[in-house]
Structure formats: structure tokens, C-alpha cells
Fold:
Amino acid sequence: MVKTRTFPKGGIHPHGRKTLSNTAAVVRLPFPKTAVVPMSQHLGAPAAVCVAKGDSVEAGQIIGTGESFISADIHAPVSGTVKDIISIVLPNSVRTQAVVIETETTFDESVLENKYRREQNDSDPVARLSSQELISIVKKAGVVGMGGAAFPSHVKFQVPKGKKADYLVINGVECEPYLTSDHRMMLEHTDEIIDGIRAVQKMINAPQVIIGIEKNKMDAVEKMEKAIADRGLTYIVQPLKVKYPQGDEKQLLKAVIKREVPSGGLPIEIGAVVSNVGSIFAVYEAVYTGKPLIDRIVTVTGDAVRRPGNFLAAVGTSIRQLVEAAGGFTEAPAKIVAGGPMMGFSFFDLDSPVTKGTSGILALTDKNLDHSPMTACISCGKCVAVCPMGLQPTKLFRLIDNGNFDEALKLNLMDCKECGCCAYTCPAKIPLVHGFKYGKKMARKKS
Amino acid sequence: MSEETSTVTKDFIIESSPQIRSAMTTSGIMWRVSIALLPAAIWGIAVFGFRSLAVLIFSIAAASAAEWLMGKLLNRRTLIDGSAVLTGLLIGFNMPPSVPLYIPVIASIFAIVVVKWSFGGLGANWMNPALAGRVFVFFSWTSGMNSWKLPQALSSMPDALSSATPLGTYKNGMLDYAGPHTGTADFLQDAGYVVSQTAQNLAGVFQNTLGITLQPLNIDLFLGNTAGCIGEVSALMLLIGAGYLFAKKILTWQTPVSYLGSFILLTWVFGGLPYGNGLFSGEIWFNVFSGGLMLGVFFMATDMVTSPVTGKGMLIYGTGAGFLTFLLRTYGSLPEGVSLAIILMNIFVPLIDRYIRPAVFGKKDIPKAAAKGKGK
Ligand code: SF4
Ligand code: SF4
Structure:
């Protein structure tokens, strides 16, 4: 096996808490009676609604079109009737239009299975299709990054002219505590992931593939290695030391190919494309079965959840339904989080829908939270030591607090990726990330 | 609770990420540092008697009262953060056991009111309050700060004469030194300095069982059987406390290692010169374990507020403190140099923090291998 690696600077070791749900096999959630499908599920411009109230739609049909360069199409997750087009606020505070579809009673999983089936005697689509054809399939399927940021995948897989990809790096790190959806994906869909990788490798024409997986998922490392060997492929599975935020593209690339994405730049500038295993599976489904991205695996977990687990949920399913599938709450949670605990958003509306980017739903109890009061900064330097980007959170926060945004920009505020290592560690409990989000907003406003 | 109703809840907390936080808190740090000082405190009380306990209590009480009053005046509740108690404890540590009790009280009030609060309270002071308090009373009540007491193990020795600290005795003697001695132990013995029975016995044990020759004086220094300030005498107890703080990840290695490193290096290279022993013959053990160095290295120089925030900055700061301590001890007119050395380095901390910055990710030149992949 390859030697374990990690990124050198900063990072933290929060409690993983993954054992709550990492042995729970993925369960398909019943389809919602009504699906609320937001038009803004990705980074970039929201999709434009292209159906009207009263229309009947079929699962997989486009209901929102992503016209701009950075955007993604949205598909109906169920068959049924468009009941309404409403405006909602997602857990990440994004206000967006949403298409409300009443699911027809005859719709069930077999409809999807019949529609999107991998033809047994189909010639290998990856061999048959050109890279541009493959990319347009990904675009049509509305695939986005499923690790968190939800960046449209077809944009990422289109290597710009004059650039070249040396590496395709597959992100199986899942460094956020609690989350286990990628882990289950790698265990339960190993072969499909390999097929998906082959497709993406062709799209970006990368000679080398490295799959980065943290050592708390050794079963996935072994399973992947075996599947690769069985197929006679040369992909490398790179086990990584457990350290947050290793799942961030920049830290992952530093760990596996020892190259640093330049400040403000993209991975392709150092010859790499990174894709999360969830997105790779979505690519597989699109390329081999024609299925667009209309469902995803969501980890429902936390101490307040009765039966933590991993669920395959249609986009637009209410979070309430997910929680109920996990047995409901054992006690009133103090906080509910969409995504992981480090970068996720706390929200209150359980009727919010699952989106393409919803990796997990976390219900934390009062005991999981820290209630110690905020004190003055004691200059302990711990925030500086843990910042993987080499920033000085304590200084940045002070500058922003004083309204000195220009100086904060000079000290590389824009390189902060809001990973939360600093605020997690700060003994004075200063809301550093909150300050940086605000500072960036103000700095953008001024320029 | 039926599963239907079990998802009906209210009042979820909404806040910015991260949604979870580490268990480390400001007060947690302050109280743990105080706990780490307990072994040394107990040792001080045990060897110098209950008078030392009174000194500690008076310093802590004065510091807490001053903090409470300042908090009251400025409408801030800061006593629970534990920083004032820690300051008081450290001031007590830096007092001779027989000091008149008003001196630690004045030192504590000075530390809290002038050094800490006139700059805005916790986190805003640029000078270590405990050290500033100590230095203030040292220069104002010099005689009170210079009346030493022998620890029990020594005062019971038949020919105990001097009750000065080993470092002080040494320093006085070295001012016009021209004698025939080969080293400090030899020199101190002639000056009438005695070693404890325990140390002599231990030295014998080491000699007989392991074949290692140890100076009994050095054993006394390490254990804390010497005259000195209440909290500084026992290197062993302070090291136990420091070990605890390292384990709790409160202490980082940069400041202590660079401080000790530079001090030891300078002592080793130049420390033998007064005896005419040439370079590279300094007595490391005596210099490291005498006086307030251990307390300074692990508990004073490492004060978070008044030391740099970057690892690299801490290395510079620690190295500077070691250098200054060596200079002040060797060439200064006072026996002790640790307090002043740290305070002097405190002054440079804002400057260090201004110019020493971590390398920002992705701001370096793109490595060659990557540049190759970039073009084409
Ligand atoms: S949130 Fe920003 S400043 Fe804080 S550790 Fe992460 S990158 Fe550094
Ligand atoms: S971690 Fe918090 S208390 Fe420590 S230096 Fe950073 S902001 Fe200040």
C-alpha cells in the first residue's frame, strides 16, 4: 500500500463521530408526496423555471434551465403535476424559486429503474463517445460537485485551452465529522465509481488518477484497491491521515500531488482536476444510464437522532421526511445543521428540501454545543497555527472589527475559505468565520 | 413520543459556521495553568513553611479584588476567566518566603490595575502583568524583596550559614572574582553554602548504583532545596506542571525550547570563562536550574497575551529572551535576569507579530513540476 500522506500546514482533529452512521447501509427513502425543487442548488446563476403551474412533468424532465456559463439544469425528481412555483429560503440563506411537484400516485422506484437502466449489451460508452460528448451528457444531467460547494461539473471537466490536466484526483476524503455518505457510496458502488472515473478521465484527458481517502475508511481503501486491481487499471488509492480540512481541494492536492493551487486560482492551474466520489457516481449514472442528478445520499445523524443512517433521497424531499425515516428525534435538538458541522449551515425550517448539495443533516443536542462565553482575544496564536491557508485570523478579525477592510484584503482575507479551523479552536470563542464572511461581503461591496 | 410528533421542535440555534467548537476556553486555559503551578506551590509551602502560603493567599486575594473592582467600574465580569487569579499566583511565586505581606499586595494591585487594565484588560496588555508587578516592587522595596529564608532541608544542617540564594551568592562572589576554583559548586562551598543531606545521599546512590557522579548542589537545585522565591526553587515541580500543560496542548514548544536552547548554548560556550576554563566549558546544570529560569521559561515567557502569535515569532522571542537572560545574569548588577529579559522581549512582540507572518498558501512561486504541467 502507498504511504499515508497529509497536508503539512495547519488543520485540526475534531471528534469524527462517524461511527454513528458509517455501518448503516444506504436506504432508499419513499418518494415525497410533494417535491419542492429549488432552482438554485449550485454555485453560479440559478436555473430558470421552464415549466408552468398545471403542467404535468415526468421524472428526469428538465424543469429549470441553467443558461449562464456557470449554472446547471434542474430536473424533475418525480413524475407528477406542477402545483405551484414558490419562493423559498434554503438552509444556506439563499432565496430561490422552487417548483412544487405533486407526485402522481402511480410513480415509484420501478419507473426510474425502467427508464434509467444500464444496457447489458451496450458497447462501452466511454470508449464510444468523445470527451466533448461525455461532457455534454454531464451538463445535460445537471451534475454538480456533491461535496459541498456544488460547483457545476461540466464547467470543471472542461479543461480550458492552453491548460492540461496531469491528474484526476478523486476526493473520497469526507473530512467533515459525522458525515458518512461518501464512505457508504465507496463501499456500495465501488464499480460504478470506477466507471465514472473512467468517464471523467476521458473528459479531462488526464494520464493519472489518484483517489484520496482518509484512513478512518480503510475498508473503502481496500475495496477500491481491489476493484481497481480486478479491472487491471493503474489508479492509485492514496490513504490520508485523518485531518480536517483535507477534503478541501487545495489541501487534498497539496497532500496527494504536493502542488499548491495558487492564491485565487483553480486546480487546473497546477494540472489537476478534483472531483468528489458523489459527483463521480452521478457522472456514472448520467453516462451509463442516462439518469440526471435527481437524488443523492444524505447522512442523517447526530446525538438527537434516533436511528442515524444514510438515505437515498430524491431532491426536493423535505428534511422532515428524512428525519422521520431516521426514527425522529430522541430529544429536542438544540441545533440542526445542513451539511457537516464545520462548514454546514444551521437552520430551523425542517420543511426545507434536500438539494444536490445536501451531504448530511445533523441534529445536535445541547451537550454537543459549547456555551462558554466569548472573551477578549488572548493572543494564544492557536488560530494562526491551525489555519491551513497561512492566514492570521486574530489580526484579520481585529481589522474587520475596526472596519479596516482594505488592510484585511492586503492580509489575504480573500484566501480564507471559511473552513472554520480557527473559530473551532479559538479558546476565546470569537466568531472568526462570521467576521470573515462579513468582511468579505463588505470588501466586495466597496470594490 | 410518537414518531409523527417527534420532529416538531422549536428554537433551534442559528449561528455562523463552524457549528461545533473545541472544548478549550480562555478560562479553561487560565485555570489549567494555575493547576499546573500547584505542585510547585505545594513544594514552596512545604520547604519554606506556612508563611509562604500566606504570601500566596495575599497575592491572589489582592489580584482578584483588583480585578473585581476594575470589572465593577467598567461593567465587565472578568473574574471568572481566571486570569487574575493566575496573575496573583505568579506574583506570589516570585516573592521571597519572608517578604512583608504588603509587598505582594502592592505588586498584585499594580499588575492588575496599571499593567493590565490601563490598557483595556485581558488580552490588551503588552507586558506580562505578574512580571511587571514583581519588577515594580523589586525596585521600590529592594530590601524586602531580598530577605531570603533557607528551606527546611538546609536550615537543619549544622553549619548552615548563608541564607542567600545560590545564584545571589555566586553572583556576589563573582563580582571581583580571582580565586582558584574550578566551578560553581566548589566556589559556593567555600562561600559557606551548604547542601542538604538528601542531596548528599542521592548523589551517593547515583554514584554507587549507576556510576554517575552528580554534584549534590545540583541535586538540591533540581529538587528545590535552596533559598529562593516561593515558586521558583523546584525545577522538578515546575517541570511536572509544564508537562501537564504540554499534554493539554496549552503550552506549545516554540517559546520554551528556543528560550532554553539559546540560554544553554550561550552558557555552555561562554559560561566557563570566569574560571579561566576557556570556551565550551560552562556549567549548564547550575545555570539552568538556579534562580527563576524554569518558572520564567515555562510560565512567564509563555504567557499567551504577551508572546507572539506565530510559531516562528515565538522562536525569535524565545531566542531573544535566552540571550538577554544570559547577558543580564552575566553582566548585570542583579543576580537575576529572567524577569527583565522577558519584559524586554515583551516590548518587541508587537514588532515581531507585525513582521513575522506565516507563509500564505498558494502565494509561493509555482513549483517547477507544476509549471510544466501548466503550459503546453
Ligand atoms: S476559516 Fe479562514 S482564517 Fe479560519 S482557518 Fe479557515 S481559512 Fe484560515
Ligand atoms: S485563537 Fe482566538 S484567542 Fe487565540 S489568538 Fe486566535 S482569536 Fe485570539
User: Anything to note?
Assistant: Residues A 386-387, 389, 391, 393, 416-422, 432-433, 436 surround iron/sulfur cluster (ligand 1) (CB under 6 Å). Chain A touches chain B through 84 residues (CB under 8 Å). Chain A has four domains: 18-25+116-289, 32-105, 301-368, 382-446.
